[in-house]
Each structure stands twice: as C-alpha cells, then as structure tokens.
Specification:
heterotrimer, A mainly beta (701), B mainly beta (139), C alpha+beta (151), B: 139 residues, mainly beta, 9-stranded antiparallel beta sheet, 9 strands, C: 151 residues, 6 strands
C-alpha cells in the first residue's frame, strides 16, 4: 500500500528511518537489521522480523511477519516482501490489505507500483471477521485480480465471484467498489425489495452521482409488475444554505393512462446577514399518490416560504403558505388555500422603571378560490384580511412574605376586511383594552434525602373589554386549554375571537426535584368567568362561567420511565380531554407510547369520543438481532389505523433489514395496503454510519 | 569497516599529554587527548588504559588490549565511529564501542548503544536501539 | 409545614432575581426562531433581565406528530413535543450552578379548516414555550445555591 496521493510525492524525498535491536553491517555494505525492526517513512510505518538494506541498490528485503501501517486507514500484513527504500514499489507475498480494520483483501501476492497502484493476485475480499478455525467468512468476493487505485481510492475487481460461506452465489466479470476510506463516490447504493398489496413485489436500485463536493444526484428506478417509477433526489449545499429536491415520474397500472408523480422541494438560506429564508414545496399529481407510494403521512400538502429574524428584543416573521387538500371531506376551492402572515414584535425596558413595554404589529390574510358569498353556517368563498396592533405594559414587584406581584395593562386594535361576504360588514374594527394582576408565592422545602419540594400558589384577576364590530370567527373555533394559556387573557388561538369580561384564575404548581430517585411535577388550575363565552366548545374545557379543572403532571423514575399527563376534568367529574405520553428504556429495550381521549363534541364534529392508543417499541434480542414494532389503534372504533413490525440482523459485515408496515385506513381513492421491505447490505464499503459495534467474536458464531 | 580491513598486527603508536605506568600489573594510563594510530586506523580519546601482555618473566611482550574512555573517536578509512568508551583487544582484532555509539559510513549514519567492529573480517555489528537513516542510492 | 418562600431574604429567588442573563434567541441552535423568541421572552418575564451574575444557556428542539387518525385517513389532531436543555453558570467562576432537561407536549385540533389548523399549530407552539419556560424556572428556583461549590 503506498502513501495517499497528496502525501506520496511530498514525502518522496523524506528518507526512511530504521530502528532495530541489532544491525549487522556486512563487508559488502549491506545493513542487516534484526529484532523488532521498524521503518518509518512519512506516516507509513513498517514492522518486521528482519530487514536487509542494500545501500547501493536501495532495495529492502524483508522477512518475518510484516505489518505495514499507513495513516490510520490501511494496514498490510505479509510474510515476506521486497520494497524500495521509501516503501513505494515492490512485491509482498501472501499479503493481506486491511482498510480501517474492517475490509480485508487477502492475496497470494501483492505488487505496489510507483506509489499509486496496488495489484493483488488471487484475492479474497471480505469485511467479515475471519476466524482461524478454517471456516470461510459469512461472505467474501474472490477475484482473479484486484487493482487498488490509491489516488481515486477505488478497487477494481476482475472475474469476481461472491461467495456466501463457500457457496458461489454470484459472478461478475468486472466490479468496481469504492475503498472504505472514501467519503463520497458515485456508485450503486444498497438495492431494496418492496412488496405492497397495490403494486406487487418491486425492486428499487438507487444510483448515486457525486457531482463535485457540494452537489449530488440519486436516481432510483423502482420497477414492479404494476409500476415503472423513476425517483430522483438532487441535493446542493451552498455557503449560506442548502436545497434538496425530491421527485418521481411514474406510470403504473393503478391509473394506467395517467402520468403520475410528486415533486417535493426544501431549502434553507441565511440571507441579509441574519435573516433565515426557508421554503418548502409539496406537489403531487393526484390525491392517492402519497398513500400508494408510502410517502410521508400527510393529508394536506403545505407549500410555504418563510422569512424570519430574531434578536433578544425584536422578532420579524413573514410567511406565505399554500394548502392543497387530499381530504375527501374538503373541496379545494372552499378551503382557505393561500395564507399570508407578517408580524413584527419589539420590547423596550425603560431604565427608570423595572418593567417592559412591548408592541406587536400583525397582518394576516387568507383567500378561498371560490367567490361564492358566505352564508351563516358556511364561509363558502369568504376572503379575510386583518391587521392587529397590540400594545402592552407589564411590571412586577416583590411584595412582603415572598409574594411576587405582576401587573399588566394593554390594548389590542383589530381591523378586519372581508370580501365575498355580506353577513358581516366589509370593514370592521375592534378595540380590546385589558389588564391583569397576578400574584405568585413560590416556596421550597429541602428534604433530608436531598430532594427539594417546590410549591407555588398562583392567583390572577383579569379584565378585558371587547368593543366594536362583530368579526367572523374563522380561525379560533378550536381552543386548547393547558398550563401554557392558564394565565393568558385571551386563550383563543388567533385574534379573530377574544375573551370578554372579568376573570379569576387560581392555580397550584408543585414539583419534587431530586438528584437521584424519582422526580415529579404537577399543575392544577381553573378559570372563573363573569359571563360564559359561546365561542368556547364543550371539549375545550373553557365553556361556561367556570372552566374544567386543568390537571397536568410529569413523573420520572430512576429506571428510565417518564410519563407526561394532562387532562380536563369537567363538572360531571369525567374528562372532556385527556392525554398521557410515556416512554421507558433500558439498555436492551425502549418503548414510547401515548393514549389520547377526546370527549364527544358536536362543534368539533366529533359525534363519538376519540380514544386512540399509539405505541412504538424496539428490543435488542441478541447482540445482533434487533426488532422494532409500532401500532396506532383506535379503541373507540375497535380497529388499528397503522401497524408496523421490523427485524434487523446486523454484524460487522452484513446488515439484513426486514420490515412490514400495514395502513388500514382507506379513502375513496386509496385502499388499505401492506408494505414489505427487505434489504441486504454488505457492510464495510459504505460510509460507516452506525456508532454501535456489532462485531461477532469467533467463538460464538 | 565495511570494505576497508585493518591489520591488528601492525605497530601501535600512542601519543598523549601524560603517561603513568603501573609496574605491578604491567599496565599504563595515557591521559589527555590520547591518539592511537595503527596502520590506517586512528583512535582518539580523553584517556586510554593499556594492558600489556606479560610473559612469565614479567617482561612486556606486546599490547594485549586498549581501553579508551571519554569522546572516543575511531576512524578507519571512509568510516568513523564515536562512542563514550571503546575496548580494543589486539589478539581478536575486535573493537567494542559502547555508550551513544554513532557510526557513519559514507552518507548513512547509524546510532546504537553498542558497536562491535571486527577488523579482520571488516564487519560491524551494532546492537541496542539501533537507528539509521536509509539514504537511497549511490553512496 | 416547612415550605419557605424563595423570594424571602436569603432565598434562591432573591439571589436570582434580575441576576440572570438568558441567552439571546438567535444564539439558540434551533430551526424555529419564532419559538426561541417566545421561550426567551417567557423566561425573562419570570427571571428578570440584564443580570450579569449568572448566564442561562439553552437548547431547544421540537417534533410534531399526527394523532387521532380516522378510518378515512384524516389526521384530526397534532401534538408538538418540545425539549430544552438548560445550564445556569455563575459568571464569576464559571461554575455550573444548575443544569438539566425539561420536556413537555401541547396539542391542537386539525379537524377545522386550514387556517384553523394553522392558528392552532402556532398557538400550540407558543403555549409549549410558556410551559417549558415555567418548568425551567421551577427547577432554577428549587436549586440550592448554597450547595453550589464556591472556590
């Protein structure tokens, strides 16, 4: 093995240094070094039993077990060798070339030619551990001749046979493989087999084109009895950003006479020094394509471009979004398909008073393609544009007995312009002054065990007064109530609906924090209102004059279990909404899961409760076998929506992946489908990605 | 020592600043930049202790061995060797140098702890952490 | 019953109030700058600002996931899982006084129109930041500052 190309010529002149226990100088001026002989040349290091160096010819004759290391990447082991003195050229017999302690080429003879090419005769190439019990490795490629090009870092094999154990499986007259030290190279990626109920059994063979260091193109034909599809992925990295384009052109039997396909694009750039520009394009030829070809699970295609910049006290964010719905229940012309948002926020902190003044300017507009006028019950083609200005002063003081008081005074002005609507005024304006007084008393207690308990009662008196024209509630019909908006003065998600009147909120925060052992936290809260707000749906928990009781908590145990729970307990002591998420892991297994309960709510067109369980787990069976499974099960309907099972066998030289995924849902254009995936990859030739090591030991395989 | 042989039987000429003779065991100590010349070979050192062969009548019949210490430099034709001390036994024709031995043969140099030079066969054997620069080609 | 106010003299709250400088949002490595701004703002509301004694450094990551998928393959709800690692360092000697990880989730309905789902998504993200900030403040106020080693 010669030096990596850039190094090769530079160290040509560098003399080789020899170290040994004994050096015998013969009358013919030959140095014979014996005993732990080592020769250093650049980053090449050669160890041998005995080396004789002939001054006049500059030839090294090397005997005894030879080990030649080159950088940390490649190693050559041989029984005997004859090399020139800067170890560039020469012949090694019964040599083994090992790349990154992973891929090894064993050959009867190896010749090195002018520092770049290494030729191996009668070679066996494998990345599996070769046990000296004589058993052949799991797989190996036997080749008549292998040429390793140092500069291009490629391996060219002639008359290559792939052997599994000692069964000849595959013959290739010529084969090119990138040597493992190469990071990016054009070539075939691991092919995979895919069987789906709609498309039958097909094979995907990706080919990777390296276009320079910053661009690459992957072309993946996917052929099955019922589809011919060509998938393309183009990626490019720039100094200030990156783009990734994915697409496919398909002709299949599901829609025989149509050209089908999809085009997804993603990009992120840093522009104007510190603005972030990001865009995302999602287009599909027809609604069923995503489900047929198992693309990411979305039921609405969202294409958008966003520009934002943040400072500690200033935030600018703009976005333009286009939606294309794939839902049967939605008509593309009647959904708000083009949505534009612009917002600017700034905070000031005067020196003469410990408080914060903030101002926010937001503009929003959304358009529906249809121009049909809105009716009482149906927005039809209504288009909305609104401008909001929100000014706020806020300060806090430290009161006696450790109480923290904070006072907020603010006002919001909303101006809304409608079109394709004659129910509401074309232009309407609303003004909403607000004020709130909040008291907190955070306390702690140190336990002997070193744990700390934290307890914090909270009380808030709030007042808002909405005055001005009525505005259609287009964005705030679905309201969530949790610790995040327990203390906010308008819990509607957007500004087209606002809470009105006086309110009183009480809450308790509790936590147990311990360096080791179990930890927990809990929050209880409730909102009392002067008058009920009809915009709040039943299951939002905020309807009526007294809201549902908000209960939320977290539990972490030392054994790796973590649970997060939240629920809204309504007046009749059952949950209108509840969700539990949990995960558990130890060194062999990990499980994550969640349970969701949504009570019946006609306003959220939920005639019967939603009760869904989701589960995803992985288990390491033995050192090399791993399984993983996932399930999404709708308990109220008593049927699964998604299920998946996977087995993976991985050792140091082969990875076998078997996965089954079943989608039970169906729409008018898509039936339920099952998707089998199967790949075999010979490790060692692709970039090393897996940090964990699955090396088998000779004894137990 | 490679190609050039030396003849251990040639007369040995010793020059030094001072000389002290020890009659009882028939040895002599040359002190102060001692220079020993034998044929083409030169040996210089700070001090040289000479042991004479003594026949049964206590007569000196020749030099048995020379023990040189301190900045020993041995030059023999194109080759030169440095060491801290050297021990030249005339009968066997071998010189044993040790202590930071530096041997230069034309363009290539070798270092080691010990060097045994056999003047009759013209070979040199270095041992103990031998280190050399393999200078390619013509030298 | 043994609970002492943290803002009483000698309490942790007293020692931390207006003494912490929260990391600027543009310095938090996250793809979502709007969320970073909300997280820093919520923390400054509770911890005060402009302090120089302590520095609070944060990471922020979040993941969204569809839920409650109907038989007609409609995703009727989304939840956003958020996670933040925090480190409170005393500037004078660089000692890390408190550090840890907080995580939580918020959800929003997707049965409404596109603008309703979008408004729900943005509100859910803002609420998640308030929750993460409150959890960080709870842990900071529970730290026993005296235990932190002082050279």
């Amino acid at each position: 093995q010669t030096l990596p190309a850039p190094l090769a010529n530079q160290t040509q002149s560098q003399p080789a240094i020899l170290v040994a226990d004994k050096v015998f100088v013969t009358p013919e001026r030959q140095l014979i070094a014996t005993g732990n002989v080592e020769v250093f040349q650049g980053d090449v290091r050669l160890k041998a039993q005995e080396i004789s160096f002939d001054n006049s010819s500059g030839q090294l004759k090397i005997t005894g077990p030879i080990r030649l290391d080159e950088g940390q990447e490649t190693t050559i082991l041989a029984d005997a060798a004859e090399l020139d003195n800067n170890l560039q050229n020469g012949i090694l017999s019964s040599a083994r070339l090992v790349f990154q302690e992973q891929v090894q080429l064993a050959a009867l003879q190896m010749t090195r030619v002018n520092g770049r090419y290494t030729q191996l005769y009668k070679t066996a190439v494998t990345s599996c551990d070769v046990c000296d019990d004589g058993r052949p490795p799991l797989w190996q490629i036997r080749a008549e001749r292998v040429i390793h090009d140092e500069e291009e870092r490629q391996l060219y094999l002639e008359n290559a046979h792939l052997h599994v154990r000692n069964v000849r499986v595959f013959y290739l007259p010529a084969l090119r493989l990138p040597d493992p030290t190469l990071d990016r190279a054009s070539g075939f990626l691991v092919p995979s087999l895919r069987t789906t109920s709609n498309l039958g059994t097909g094979v995907r063979v990706p080919y990777f084109f390296k276009i320079g260091d910053h661009k690459d193109l992957t072309v993946t034909p996917y052929i099955s009895p019922r589809t011919r599809s060509l998938e393309l992925r183009y990626r490019q990295a720039f100094r200030t950003g990156e783009i990734s384009l994915n697409g496919a052109y398909t002709r299949d039997d599901l829609q025989p006479d149509d050209d089908r396909g999809f085009f997804f694009a993603d990009g992120r750039f840093r522009v104007l020094q510190d603005y972030n520009l990001a865009f995302q394009v999602r287009t599909v030829s027809d609604d069923a394509y995503i489900a047929d070809y198992s693309l990411p699970d979305v039921d609405r295609l969202r294409s958008q471009i966003t520009l934002d910049r943040t400072r500690r006290d200033r935030l600018f964010a703009g976005s333009l979004i286009h939606y294309k719905t794939l839902r049967d229940s939605e008509d593309q012309n009647l959904i708000p398909s083009i949505i534009a948002d612009l917002s600017y926020e700034q905070r000031w902190h005067p020196s003469w008073r410990n408080g914060e003044f903030s101002a926010a300017f937001r503009s929003h507009s959304h358009r529906r393609i249809s121009d049909a006028n809105a009716t009482l019950t149906d927005p039809m083609g209504r288009d909305v544009a609104r401008l909001n200005v929100d000014l706020n002063w806020q300060e806090s003081w430290r009161l006696p007995f450790g109480v923290i008081g904070s006072w907020q005074l603010g006002a919001a002005v909303d101006h809304v312009r409608l079109s394709d609507d004659d129910l509401f005024g074309v232009n309407s304006t609303r003004i909403t002054p607000r004020s709130a007084l909040t008291f907190r008393l955070p306390t702690t207690r140190r336990e002997r065990s070193g744990a700390t308990q934290y307890f914090e009662p909270i009380l808030q008196l709030g007042w808002t007064d909405v005055s001005g024209d009525d505005v259609p509630n287009e964005e705030s019909n679905f309201v969530e109530f949790d610790q995040g908006n327990l203390l906010s003065l308008s819990r509607f998600p957007s500004t087209d609906a606002r809470e009105d009147g006086a309110s009183l909120v009480y809450g308790f925060n509790w936590a147990r924090i311990a360096p080791q052992g179990w930890q927990a936290s809990a929050t209880v809260g409730q909102v009392f209102r002067q008058e009920a707000n009809s915009d709040f749906t039943k299951s939002s928990g905020l309807s009526g004059t007294s809201s549902d009781l908000l209960l939320a908590g977290q539990l972490q145990f030392a054994n790796g279990t973590a649970l997060t729970m939240r629920g809204l307990l309504n007046g009749s002591l059952n949950f209108s909404k509840a969700e539990v998420r949990g995960n558990w892991h130890n060194d062999k297994a990990r499980i994550t899961g969640s349970y969701l309960w949504l009570g019946t709510d006609p306003d959220e067109n939920r005639s019967d409760a939603t009760s869904e369980l989701w589960f995803n787990g992985g288990y390491q069976l033995t050192g090399n076998w791993r399984t993983q499974a996932n399930l999404r099960y709708d308990i109220s309907d008593g049927r699964a929506t998604r299920a998946g099972l996977g087995f993976a066998y991985q050792n140091e030289c082969v990875t076998v992946d078997l996965s089954v995924n079943r989608r039970y849902t169906s729409t008018t254009s898509v039936e339920p489908s099952t998707d089998f995936g199967f790949t075999i990859a010979l490790n060692g030739f692709s970039a090393k990605s897996d940090s964990k090591n699955y090396r088998r030991s000779c004894s137990n395989t | 020592f490679g190609t050039v042989r030396a003849d251990p039987l040639l007369p040995v000429e010793v020059t030094a600043d001072t000389l002290s003779v020890n009659q009882s065991n028939g040895s002599a100590d040359f002190l102060g930049n001692v220079l020993i010349i034998q044929g083409a070979m030169r040996l210089s050192a700070d001090t040289v202790h000479v042991v004479y062969k003594v026949d049964d009548t206590n007569q000196q019949t020749g030099i048995e061995s020379l023990q040189a210490k301190g900045n020993v430099i041995l030059v023999n034709g194109p080759d030169a060797a440095e060491a801290q001390q050297a021990n030249y036994s005339i009968d066997t024709g071998t010189i044993v140098l040790n202590g930071d031995v530096l041997l230069t043969q034309g363009a290539s140099t070798l270092t080691s702890n010990q060097l045994v030079v056999n003047l009759t066969s013209g070979t040199a054997e270095m041992s103990g952490r031998v280190k050399t620069i393999l200078v390619p080609g013509k030298n | 019953c043994g609970f002492t106010p943290v803002y009483a003299p000698g309490g942790t709250g007293e020692a931390l109030f207006n003494q912490i400088e929260v990391v600027a949002p543009e310095k938090i490595k996250t793809r979502n700058t709007v969320a970073a701004f909300a997280l820093v703002r919520a923390l400054e509301e509770r911890l005060g600002r402009g302090g120089s004694t302590y520095a609070l450094d944060l990471t922020l990551s979040q993941r969204s996931e569809g839920q409650a998928i109907t038989a007609e393959n409609e995703i009727t709800r989304f939840s956003i899982e958020g996670r933040s690692d925090y480190t409170l360092t005393r500037r004078s000697d660089g000692v890390i006084v408190a550090s840890g990880t907080v995580n939580n989730f918020t959800g929003y309905s997707a049965t409404g129109s596109t603008v309703e789902t979008l408004a729900g998504e943005r509100d859910a993200e803002q609420r998640l930041m308030v929750i993460l900030a409150d959890q960080i403040v709870t842990r900071l106020l529970s730290t026993d500052l005296t235990a932190a080693p002082t050279e």
